[in-house]
Design goal:
By secondary structure, this protein is mostly helical. It contains 29 helices and no strands.
Length: about 550
């Protein structure tokens, strides 16, 4: 007969688990800690790890889950041990970006499930394999493992496994360019999870993160925006730091792609506030997106500074290569891009983006024939998949190659196709870059048309705040004998050098004291400069000045 202490311990553990299931994270944490103060039960250790993850204490969460795993093994509870190992693999992968630890825990989960003949867990092991493969860019492997997991879910009647498998499968298919099929699966999983069909809140987080991230990468602006709003409603209720940072990062990427750069800055900055320790993987992606924005603004040095400490992270590969190219360093850019392409493959959307940039690098290295072959392969892949973003990148890359070979007439229709496609996709920076290339192709054929397209691209770059691209457009117009200068934002020429430095630092959200420390001037002097630049630029406050500095970058941050 159990003692009174045993009965009380079970009651306390049940209350803690109820709080966890209801999403009362702080209450659950305190309750599990109280249980553990009496006895180190693996169930309580695992529950505390779950509560800490939802509270944003990811590393502490992992430590508790690892202790829970060891406790389950000692108790002979192989099923809970395997499930904990799966959980650890997913958290190490999605939150911490630790690929080695993630794969190690995945291998351990598979071994425990096999040795204990836990057939009902094989579907979860396959799901974990799909998730790890998706994040590594292995879309084919992710597709295969997702289908295995989905079949297992249907056979077992496991709704959480089914919805998670649909999310991973949809992600894999969208990454492979099968947008319509992939988006349909993601929509299905997201709708069912948010409606309450899932029994675990973790399922909602996984479905939401996969959906908003996939839609953002595919430039599906409307769908991404709608699901971000839906996920935000869930997050206001339960407060998942992982979901919050993922949504902010994905939405920031959408806003950047669609030309709303000040709004993109706000979303990406919000994502970064969570800190690198809690969500290192998502933190790296947010930094990469913000670095892309800075590079587009012509602030290459600042873009590179943002990536300090993340130079070897896979998600920063594209922007690191782009920074090298902006400096004319084709060799280092090519090396980075080829290495990343070996990881993700060429037959997917990520691969198309990497390959297009590699083509630019190879043209700088006089590797035109190899570059043209790659461009044709991208275009053919996009046509085969019916994937407009891949087609647009392939056609633009091929147009660039033809232009480099002085085959301007053949380049024009390719670049026109790219310009139209990027326009339909609501990607103004990519469309305007295509327009400038089209102007260059037309220069040898129809000078007036070339001038018109170049002027249109200059105006587009100015509106976006794409400084380096606007300089290139103005320079091309001057090469045609047309007077062209950067219009620049209103009033910017009135600012002193020090006021420009202060304005740039305002865009980082620094206080007057912090700006003074950075520039070695007093707070009162900073206040004077802020008041002066606000008056000259006809702005109403620091918030408007910060937004202005993001849209019209003045100089690299001192």
């Amino acid at each position: 007969m159990p003692s009174d202490a045993d009965v009380q311990g079970r009651v306390s553990l049940r209350k803690a688990q109820d709080a966890l299931e209801d999403g009362r994270w702080a209450e659950a944490r305190n309750a599990f800690e109280a249980v553990l103060a009496q006895e180190e039960l693996p169930d309580a250790m695992s529950g505390l790890g779950n509560a800490l993850w939802w509270l944003g204490e990811t590393e502490a969460s992992v430590r508790h889950q690892e202790r829970a795993y060891a406790g389950f093994r000692r108790r002979g509870d192989d099923e809970q041990a395997a499930l904990t190992a799966i959980y650890l693999s997913l958290v190490y992968n999605a939150s911490l970006g630790n690929d080695a630890a993630s794969r190690g825990w995945l291998a351990r989960a598979a071994r425990v499930a096999d040795e204990a003949r836990l057939d009902e867990l094989q579907g979860w092991v396959s799901l974990c394999r799909a998730s790890v493969a998706n994040d590594a860019g292995g879309r084919r492997e992710a597709e295969t493992q997702s289908r295995i997991a989905r079949d297992a879910a249907v056979r077992l009647g496991d709704r959480d496994l089914e919805l998670c498998a649909l999310s991973e499968l949809g992600t894999a298919l969208m990454g492979l360019g099968s947008f319509e099929e992939g988006a349909s699966l993601l929509d299905e999983a997201m709708a069912a999870a948010l409606a309450g069909e899932a029994t675990s809140l973790d399922t909602v987080v996984l479905a939401s993160c996969r959906t908003v991230t996939s839609c953002s990468r595919a430039a599906d602006v409307r769908r991404a925006t709608q699901w971000v709003r839906a996920a935000d409603q869930f997050n206001r209720r339960y407060g998942s730091p992982h979901l919050y940072t993922t949504c902010r990062t994905a939405y920031g990427g959408v806003l950047f792609a669609t030309g709303r750069w000040a709004d993109a800055e706000r979303e990406l900055s919000a994502a970064l506030e969570i800190g690198a320790a809690a969500e290192r993987a998502v933190h790296a992606e947010a930094l990469a997106k913000l670095a892309e924005l800075r590079l587009a603004q012509g602030r290459a040095a600042e873009a590179q500074r943002l990536l300090t400490g993340f130079e070897n992270h896979p998600v920063t590969a594209l922007v690191r290569a782009a920074i090298h190219l902006a400096r004319g360093e084709a060799g280092p850019a090519s090396a980075i891009l080829r290495r990343r392409l070996r990881e993700v493959g060429e037959d997917c959307l990520d691969g198309a983006m990497l390959t297009e940039l590699l083509i630019e690098a190879e043209l700088l290295q006089d590797l035109g024939d190899a570059a043209a072959d790659k461009a044709r392969q991208i275009s053919e892949l996009g046509a085969r998949l019916g994937c407009e973003p891949i087609v647009a990148r392939g056609e633009r890359a091929l147009g660039r190659c033809l232009l480099a070979r002085d085959e301007a007439e053949d380049a024009v229709p390719r670049l026109e196709t790219a310009l139209s496609a990027f326009g339909r996709l609501e990607m103004p920076l990519e469309a305007t870059r295509s327009q400038l290339l089209l102007a260059m192709a037309l220069a040898a054929i129809e000078r007036d048309a070339a001038i018109a397209e170049a002027r249109g691209s200059l105006s587009g770059f100015e509106q976006l705040g794409a400084g380096a691209d606007a300089d290139a457009a103005a320079g091309f117009l001057r090469s045609l004998g047309v007077r062209a200068s950067r219009a620049g934002p209103k009033g910017i020429g009135l600012l002193t050098r020090r006021e420009r430095e202060v304005l740039s630092l305002l865009s980082e959200g620094l206080s007057n004291r912090e700006i003074g420390e950075r520039l070695f001037i007093t707070r009162k002097t900073v206040e004077h400069h802020v008041a002066s630049l606000l008056a000259k630029l006809e702005l109403r406050g620091r918030a408007e000045a910060a937004a202005y500095a993001v849209r019209y970058p003045i100089t690299d941050t001192p």
